[in-house]
Amino acid sequence: MASISSLGIGSGLDLNGLLDQLYAAERSKLEPIGQQIETQQVKISAYGELKGALSAFQDATQALNETTLYQSLSTSISGDAVQAAANGEASPGRYDISVDTLATAGSIATQRVDSLDTVLTEDDSELNLTFANADLNQRVAIEAGSTLQDVRDAINADPEAAVNASVINDGSGYRLALMSKQTGSDATLLDTDFAEMASDATLTDVTIEQAGQNAAFTVNGISVESASNQVDDAIQGVALDLQSTGQSSLLVEQDTQPAREGIDNFISAYNELKSTAGRLTAFNGADGQAGELIGDSAVRTIESRLRSDLGNGLVGEEGHQRLDEIGIALAVDGRLELDEQKLDAALAENPEAVGAFFSGADEANGLAGRLDATLSQLLDEEGALESAVAGAENRIESLGDRYVRMEQRIDTSIAHYQTQFSQLDAMMAQMNQTSAYLTQQLGMLDAQMGGGGMSGQ
């Protein structure tokens, strides 16, 4: 409100102060609306907190809906001959592995060249790489004027060349060494046809330094041969990495730890959701403080639907049908309580049955699938939570419009008061002037009358 500095000067009244008091009194009518807007904003923030807890519970629920969680296997190895990792297709058991030979790559080296500057080719030519496995054969283009290093670079630049080339100084000169990228006997490099490529006889002498060989090992006495030291098909579901010749024993066991951790996370996430809802709907009688969502219907809907899903059994499913059968119970306060010994026993005895209870025959039939569907509905744009948020936002918008309209009415009223006060000030100023004039005239008249009496004596 813009004050009028001259208001009250004519009348001598504190009209500005009175106008300020009227303005403050009118503005106080806006406070309830502002408080209502703030209440709705606090509710929206509380809904956001509840949504975060719901989303965290859904993440934990979806993790339990993965069948692989209950099929985890662990491996332990004695001996240094192999390393191993098992997946869900492996069968628990003990495997004795004896590695006789490791798979190696084939390699050859050329005759010695005295200088790295020696030009090997005067014309464009090709280098023919020939392998025991003809599918690996490749012809590499060599440019005219190439040195030993240029040939090396041309071979390494060809993506189809199944060798890695390098230049080696043997102390008396330089040789071009080629090693197969693959291991195994099929990767043996038989010839390089350097004679056809070179312009003279400098590279005609090629020595096979090492023939490629397959790995040879036994698994529980059964002979196995592999072109690679990484073997994925010798033991179903087990990836072997042959490290050295020697003996190793591999033990594959059921690992219930991932499932146990997933169930622990599930219980913790639900109890955190329950705590969040309880705090937002609580009433503290000692200080009269109420939770932001006390009495809120959306919270009641969420709690009711989740409690129903957790409490109802899996009709028609074999094996476990209720949470309490695996050591998880709904307490009186609505939280989940865990009997660790009972859950550990259920997982140790039959982890697949626990998995079937949570994940079911497909993603929708187990408890986790049922909960996930409910949570998706609750978190959907048209679900209970988003509907409550939309309702609060609509109320804020409506209250905001009401606030603006009332502000406009207040400004109109204050402007009317200013006009009236200005008129009052002008009228009072005129009355004061008239009063002063009359007082002056009466004073002069009294003086004249008094003076005339004395002269008459």
Topology summary:
Blueprint lengths: L14 H13 L3 H34 L8 E6 L3 E5 L6 E9 L5 E4 L14 E7 L6 E5 L5 H10 L5 E7 L4 E7 L8 E3 L2 H4 L8 E5 L4 E5 L2 E5 L3 E6 L2 E5 L3 E9 L2 H24 L2 E2 L4 E2 L6 H15 L16 E3 L5 E3 L1 H10 L1 H9 L7 H13 L4 H73 L1
Antiparallel strand pairs: 1-15, 2-14, 3-11, 3-15, 4-8, 4-10, 5-6, 5-9, 7-8, 11-12, 13-14, 16-17, 18-19
Helix pairs in contact: 1-10, 2-5, 2-9, 2-10, 6-9, 6-10, 7-8
General description of the model:
Belongs to the FliD family. With 457 residues, the protein is α+β, with helices and mostly antiparallel strands. It folds into three domains: 1-72 and 255-428; 73-102 and 215-254, no CATH class; 107-210. The protein is built from ten helices and 19 strands. The chain has helices spanning 15-27, 31-64, 148-157, 194-197, 257-280, 297-311, 340-349, 351-359, 367-379, 384-456, and strands at residues 73-78, 82-86, 93-101, 107-110, 125-131, 138-142, 163-169, 174-180, 189-191, 206-210, 215-219, 222-226, 230-235, 238-242, 246-254, 283-284, 289-290, 328-330, 336-338. It has a five-stranded antiparallel sheet, with no helix packed on it. A four-stranded antiparallel sheet has the order 7-8-4-10, with helices on one face. It has a three-stranded antiparallel sheet with strand order 2-14-13, with no helix packed on it. β5 and β6 form a beta hairpin. It is elongated. The two termini are 67 Å apart. Mean pLDDT is 84; it is low at 1-5 and 453-457.
